[in-house]
Amino acid sequence: MLNTDPRKFPESGYCLYRDVFNRAQVEKMRQSLQVATLAGLSGLPNYYGEPHTTDVFWLETCIHPRLLDAVDSVLGPNLVLVFSSMFIKQPRDDRAVCWHQDKTFWPSVHGTGVVTVWLAIDDVAEENAPLQLIPGSHQGHCQLETVEAGAKEWLSKKVEITPRQEASAVSMTMSAGSLSIHDSHLIHGGGINHSDRRRAGYTIRFCSTDTAWVDVGEHPIPVYLVRGEAGLRGKDYTDRRP
Asked: pTM of the entire structure?
């Protein structure tokens, strides 16, 4: 059974939140993504990087009160928005997302209390390549060694796991408008989309200013304070509190 209790987040490293956004809100997300696709923005139709920095619609999605409430339930009230990206597996896409830790890709982000929100833009079932998580693999917050990923894998590098770890993975099946949150050290990935349905997910990355900080000078985009206090190292964060 998938974890839906934020109180178990420290142990499991993830939590599922069902129906955070309603169908009308999801349809607006799909329409906005379609407009961006037709405009030929870089990376689409498979990847849309940092839309919250260029499109106010996506920024408002990132700081929607119900979404921030979900993040607050695992990180506490002092939050900064660090990154966001849309990952889109097209029908019959033969590439898998290799096993990895998000923290590997963020050298400007320091500390713990760093998470990824995975917001379903489409309904996600077993056949259209759900996010897969290995519960508890974040414990100790160790950044694992990486190896080069394969030609048929989405990312440039990956971590190697044991058969026992792979067998323990859970599939994050969910309806559009639902979201999951996972720790940045949690090992996760995703398989091939064997179906005739698209699977789009919006990843939004947050830090708690109580336990983490971002080196603004090294960070490629603005860091937004979105709830609570900036913390001792947050004087250069951009205030976007609703």
From this structure: 0.96
